[in-house]
Amino acid sequence: MKRITTLQIQARKDQDEQIVMLTAYDALSASLAEQAGIDFLLVGDSLGMVVLGYDSTVPVTIDDIIHHTKPVVASTNRAHVVADMPFGSYQSGWQDAMKNATRIMKETGASSVKLEGGTRIAETVEKLVQSGIPVMGHIGLTPQSVNTLGGHKIQGTTPRSAVKLISDAKSLEEAGAFSIVLETIPAALSHMITTRLSIPTIGIGAGPYCSGQVQVFHDILGLYKDFDPKHARKFVDAGQLLGDAINEYKTSVKNKSFPNSDESFFMEDRNIKLIQKMINNETSSDTIDNSSAINQSQEH
Ligand code: KIV
Which of 12, 128, 205, 210 has the largest CB neighbor count within 10 A? Predict the structure, then answer.
């Protein structure tokens, strides 16, 4: 089956169909998303926080992104997979960006890449698109700049910063970006941006007026405890469910109710007797048979 293209993503916006995007970092998250009908996946550098345990996305490397994009592509058939370009892989200029984006596309099979920034990186976006690499933009709260933004704070709340974001979005569209992530900005501003662009906007913490939404896999499933963004709805508390299940496993091992006879393998009684005969010269204390094994496990 062919993967979803940027043209098909554009068609969804044109037909007023909401675009649904989710992050994925491995075969499990990607296949769960695709089975649920989500065909627009982002291997976000958020993997640094939710998978690798860092306290920001800044330490994530090109090798990390490549390592995590490969299984996402390998375990999906239809999804358009966007690979994030990590901090330091494109900020120094379009030549480095080209080298790194080309490496990501060739080594992972990703369908496109995503870069953070507006007008400042428009030339880079233009060069990548001209060379055949589809680019998704990302403005508003750009987590790679968390150190200059002073934290994960709402952006575009003043008239001046809002106008700047509108002009950033325009620059990215003009440079050839096929879509733009709007992160943590007021809903009214994302409405202004979305209505001024022909390419789709994908919001995260940007209210309901975008062409679609993206969320972090771990946030919507309750799997990440260290950060609880206001915009993320927990559709299930899988962290609690999984924790309870692991605890039950631990208790079952300790009280010997796991494994039971259904979870064990047995050999024919005559083989047990033969083995006992063969080893009896070495030890005479080995008197286990199938029935005692079954009885033992059924006692619990
Ligand atoms: O890295 C990521 O997951 C992202 C989303 C928050 C859009 O960039």
Answer: 128
